[in-house]
# Entry
Amino acid sequence: MPVTGQLYRCAWRVALIATLAAIAPAANATAAVHSDEVTYNQPTQPLSIGPTLPIIEQAPYFESVAVSYDDIAGSVTLSVTQFASGWWGPSFAGIDVYVTGQCGGTKIDSDDGVKMASNELHISVPESDSDFPAGPLYPADGLSTPAPPTATATLAGHTGEVSGSGTFDGTTFTFTVSDPAFVQQDWFCTTVDGSDQGFAELTGWPVGTAATRAQLRAMTTAANLHHAAGFVRKTDYLYDAGVVDLPGGDWAAASATSHGHKSAGNDTIVFRFSGGRWRVVDSGFLAVAMPTPAFIASLPPLVQWTLFFA
# Structure
């Protein structure tokens, strides 16, 4: 089941996405709609003997699931298609979708008592009434066509739920849920329950680019002055450096060698451009002077997760 859109591959890119949460209101002022789509391969027909229905007519399978988040209107829309839509008609398989700022979807409690806040939105749509016949009986069966099921949504940290009626146009099911609490959320990723391809990224957020040589030299000077994560210019260097231009100033992140060596455990150093120069914001979890739990808790949730728990 492939997921369209890239998953995170570079350490600097993960750290840069984290900084977006810190300026979410400013970013949302210019970007209104964020979307992605999860697509699936058609299931393989098993070996069989005798007359056999195609596997996609034996049970409903999703062909695509698209998510669209309007951060100004505070609404989230699911658009879902199933293989053999003409066979299944308005009979829906049921689905659970999670929209979140915690890319990867894992909630974490650290050993030192710091708990990362979550703004995860859970949208659930039940399966259609199993008594409704699909296949050749649809739609010329003389029965009334049932309405698509209703979507319900719950938001972490909030009580209650909101609902949205579904529609079906003969091919695509559409479900929309909205609430004022959904406005200007830092939702970067979606996960479809049961998909084994991780998460997909919502588009429409600022995109990071590789740092220029001049930027990298300036960041190296800042890291050396700060001695971030024990960084010493004579033996260490920065790599996988990226920059993102955000309202209010540029942010950057780079991996740093340890005694001149690259390794999976190398620190990520985060920078912000202010006062005409790059300044170290903080370094990763291997820093010599570990930030206190109170300091970690003061950071935006996605920054906490990326810098200290990812």
Remarks:
- Residues 32-201 form one domain.
- Residues 256 and 262 are 8 Å apart (CA to CA).
- The first helix runs from residue 11 to 19.
